[in-house]
Amino acid sequence: MAHATAISELAECLFVSIKGTSRDDPAFRGHKEQTIEGLRDSGHARTNQFEVKERLEGLVEKFGVLNRDDLADALQLRLNELPTNSLYLPELLSLLLELSNGPFERNEYEPSEKLLQGNVVEDEPTWQDILDDDPLSEDGIWDDVKGGYHSSGDEAARDGDDYSDPTASTSATSFDEDDLNATARQHFVQPDLQLLEDIRLHQGDLRGANNSHALATFSELAVIREVITMLQGLPSCIFTTHEASGKVRYRGNCSIFTAQQSTLRHLLELLASCGTHLGFLRYWTQQKNEVAKFLQSMQSAVYGLLSILTIDLGSLAQRYISPMSEQVVSIAQCHAEIEDLTRPLVRLSEVIQNGTVLDAPILSRFGVIDALYDEACLAHRIGDQQIFITVLKPLLAGLQTYSRLVQHWVSTGGLPEGSQEYFFVRDENQDCVPSDVWHNRFVTNRTAEGQINAPQCVHPLLQRAFDTGKSRAFLVLLGDVDSALPPMNLTVSTVLESSTFEHLLSEDSLQSFDQLLLETLDTCLTAQAADSTLALLNAVLHDHGLLSTLKAIEFLYFSKDGGILQSFTETLFGRIDRRSKTWADPFMLTELAENTFGASSNVDMHLITVRTDSKKAPAASASEIKQLEHLEVGYALSWPVQNITRTNKLTIHAATFAFLLQVEYCSHLLHPQIFVLRRLPLQNPGQKLQATLRYALGLRNRLLWYLGVLRAHITMTCSLLHRQVTQQMNQADGIDAMASAWQDYETKLQTSLLLTRKLSPIRNAVIGILELCERCAPKLDFVLQDSSLYVNFTATVDEMDKALSFVVAGLRAVSRAGGEASLATLAENLDWKG
Amino acid sequence: MPAADDSKRKAARETIDILHEISTLLNTHLDRQSLSYCVSLIENGVNPEALAKVIQELRAQNERYEIERAETAAQ
User: Fold this and answer.
1) Is B42 close to A88, i.e. CB distance below 8 A?
2) pLDDT at A524
3) Fewest beta carbons within 10 Å, which of A277, A507, A596, A747?
4) Would the CB atoms of A83 and B11 count as touching at under 8 Å?
5) Which helix (H) or strand (E) holds A149?
6) Helices H / strands E in chain A, number of each
């Protein structure tokens, strides 16, 4: 109402102004109504500002053409002075244009006073003004000009014109060197902001659509541009992007003339889904990860792929901006092209998303790289080269970086710094004793589920890599190699290039990618592994005492040189015979062993120790056989050898030697009687010995036979087993093989010599016979000394028979169960009735 | 805020001045007063073509009236 009143009043004023009639005029009211009616006429179209602008530009141009530059300049000047922020300017100018009446024919243009004031020409400067400003009173100003100055009226100058420098430019040939700003201003080009007016107007339209939910109509080209902008990760007016997750959603606020709304929505939603995947990749590449360097490599590779896509999208946009040939602008075609361009990266995004879900801190840290590996294998198998190459690049980038950790471990034997969470080796015990380094210092790092903490694709090689690194660490401890990284002839990084793989796989279409990858890694590892393992084996065998220890064992424990053993036993048994209380003194025994066994060049006397186990030693009143059982001959082992034997004491060998000593002692007790036997009186040839003597001699023979069988069994079994283990040590391919061979050797030794707890009943029976021999020996001695003496050996013989039967039966049973051939042979030998 | 109002009024006056000069260049025969009324009408939503048509009709009526008066005076 107020608006209508305002219009009415204004119309009244205008009417009065134009008509010149007063309000008292009787026709005033009718005319006024007519005027107001005319103003309310809504049959006219909205003012087109561009049309108005074009008309005005055309008018200015027409003024110029009709040689009315004054009008043209004046009009242009005033149009430029108009404020641009006025909303009704187009309408006002449209009104003036409508009312324009032949401006070039009947123009009574008189410049306004303001313009006249602005156009006042200043007085020209006079010489007096110039002299007042700059009087000619400088020194030297009237001096002759130096030669070389050329003026147009100088004859001499004409001759020298040929020598003058050509002028570089006709503009700004002289300038004030002090006023660089003025010089710079001459070269400035003022941009014409009017050229951007259309773009600003269009941006205004888009921003309006951006802020409102109403459906706005765009051109197909604008929609394509917005789609490309969105795919490049930039803000878009028709898509929203969630900053944290990169999820893209179509606003649903645009329509185009050339397609139905549902079709457009479908296409744009598909493209938004594509944008979501690309957005996730951008989000993933920006995640910070300071610890897992291989993840950073993968992020870098994916970032490179995204950059290539951005360039491709830019080329696609360029085709619309600067088309080389005519082409149809179609959102559907654009969608098809974009789908083809982005398919590999979309699939890559899905794979990484799946791998990232698995890659939680508690679970495997290699979820992404494992997922990429599976996808690469699958893509190669089904022949999808595009996806295969796209997935291959981040996979190999990650493997390259991870392989550097493995290379560091394999080459130096040391763990890479800051890799505890992502490396498959862990230093379990940094303060480990050297004798336990191989088995207990480094362990494989496993997840909570028991899986090795490494990518799945390298699992088949990890054990060898682990052993190689341990070998290297062992060599470093031995001091045989430098801990610095040696030069590699074949570096993993140069081999793990995607171009190399593509070339190899294209040459052999039947080879699978996983097989090729494994072979490549295996080749690199073998080159490094061979060096370390061989060097370690040589060092341990030859330089750090394993072979020399094995040789010493033969001489020390297994009586390889019978003369040496005899000299030891003679002295020892002599002390026992003299009932010396100190025969078991460790110091004296050690000295005896050093002097006897140390005579052999294969035994280092300084490493020999002899002691008796004070906890297990029987009372002094026990038989010597029992006391000899607890005699322990020790041989010091170097710490590298202890890594193989897993112990610093050769307990089984000591027990074997004690067993041998027991047998030798019994032999010692029985053998002097041979000299007595020679003195036995024989009255007549053919005279039979007395029954007791006969019995005693028979028993003696049986005992000697028994001791001989035992001795042969001990020495031959030990010699055979020891020869085998020495051969195995020379042929072993690693410390683990050596340790396993030694373990097996000791087990066989224990079993063959009845030293295990399970065989203790049989062993006790065997020792029982030896004790019986020890008890019998004096009696036999008496009988042989005096054949008239009567000694009943029946009980002794029965006891021996019983024990022997038990031993034979037990040995047979054990050999059948355990398969030990030596025990079966011993049983057969002991069962021989002669 | 009087200072802001003054500047607005000054800006409006300058705009009217410039429009008047353009109007003169285009030979619209609008005086300053009429032009200001036209500006107000347009700012109140009147269509410029409709307004131009009304002004032309009023002028045509004026001419007809002047011719009739001249004929009556001659008689």
Assistant:
1) yes
2) 77
3) A507
4) yes
5) none
6) 33, 8
pLDDT tens-digit profile of A146-198? 665 555 554 544 444 455 555 544 555 555 566 788 778 777 777 777 777 77
Decide if pLDDT at A777 tops 80: yes
Q: Which residues of A touch B43 (CB under 8 A)?
A: 88
* H-helix or E-strand spanning residue A240: strand A239-241
Computed over every residue of chain A, the mean pLDDT equals 81
Of A35, A93, A114, the CB nearest to B54: A35
In one letter, which amino acid is B21? E
Enumerate helices (H) and strands (E) in chain B, giving the number of each. 3, 0
Given a cut of 90, whether residue A724 has pLDDT beyond it is: yes
Whose tokens are 């089904």? That residue is A382
Instruction: Copy the structure tokens of residue A151.
Output: 């003026």
d(CA A12, CA A2): 15
Other Cβ atoms closer than 10 A to A462: 18
The pair of structure tokens assigned to A650 is: 């050769």
Structure tokens at A502: 């593509």
**What's the gap between Cα A811 and its chain centre?**
58
Confidence of residue A288 (pLDDT cuts 50, 70, 90): confident
Residue A589 pairs with which residues in a beta bridge?
A: none
State whether ipTM is beyond 0.85.
yes
Q: Which residue has the higher pLDDT, B8 or A643?
A: A643
Give pLDDT, residue A107.
55
Q: Which residues from chain A sit within 8 angstroms of residue B44, using beta carbons?
A: 3, 6-7, 10
Q: Are A41 and B53 inside 8 Å of each other by CB?
A: yes
**Contacts of A332 by beta carbon, 8 Å cutoff, 6+ apart:** A259, A263, A267
- How far is residue A54's CA from residue A156's CA, in Å, rounded to a whole number? 61
Q: Which two tokens stand for residue A554?
A: 């033969």
What is the distance between the alpha carbons of residues A140 and A669, in angstroms, rounded to a whole number?
A: 142
Q: What is the pTM of this model?
A: 0.61
For B63, nearest residue in chain A (alpha carbons): A19
Contact in structure between A490 and A527 (CB atoms under 8 Å): yes
CA-to-CA separations, B1 to B10, B11, B71, in angstroms, rounded: 14, 16, 58
**How much of chain A, in percent, has pLDDT values that exceed 70?**
83
Q: How close A49 gets to chain B, by Cα (Å)?
A: 12
Query: A657: pLDDT confidence band, cut at 50, 70 and 90?
Result: very high
- Whose structure tokens read 């190459």? A389
For A810, residues 6+ apart whose C-beta sits below 8 A from its C-beta are A759, A761, A762, A765
